[in-house]
Write a structure and sequence with these properties.
With 253 residues, the chain is of the alpha+beta class. The protein contains eleven helices and four strands.
Length: 253
Amino acid sequence: MLRPVRADRRTQPPGAGTPRGIRLPLVAAAVVAAGLSAACGPSTEPVGSAAPTSASASPEPSATESAAASPEASPSVSASASASASASATPRSASSSPARAGSGAAGTPAKSSRTPAAAQPAAVPGPGYDSSADAQKLIDAALRTAKSEGRMVLLDFGANWCGNCKAADKVFGQPQTAALLGKSYQLVKIDIGGNSSANSALLRKYSPSGGTYTMPVLVVVTPSGTVRTDTHVTGNPSLTAEGINSFLRQWAS
């Protein structure tokens, strides 16, 4: 605080202005007073009651010290400090507990509400009988599918030259009858109009009563291979949509 005064003394010529002995105390007093005023600010306390011991030890007082020493001089600093404290004390709920899609409470995966798809309707063979087909393999496959999908097996023994078989084929192709067949039956058509001894043996296996067979012979079999009904014994239903549909509904379950 005395250096500016000494520098000023060097730059001015001797004898100019106020005498040296008077100028030095006045300038020093003014600098000290200015330093006290800048460090403490205005105060209503008696002079000297709270004078700082070392103003030069802390070049820039902190926001907390300034706010405590002079609440009137810096209200904005105090308000900013309060707002900052409030913001830092507020927890971030969004980041503390991230939500995970598809999970239940406490991180437990949600159970799927998806139900098993219903079985597709079974394919209904077209009209006629394939004399070259392996009927035993067709029956075995139909029994497996019927077991897994909860259907019955309908064995249709006939011949391509049989008029009644053609009439039954025509009804099987109608939408309502085809829907009943596809929903409740695995239909297997077996040719017994040729010279296939294997197919004739299958007819006797599932319709063992023998004698003269009136075609078509319709046999309903469970997935386990048990015969439920045999039209060689009971007689054929009317070969109309009404007669065949009634027969199919009767033995579907």
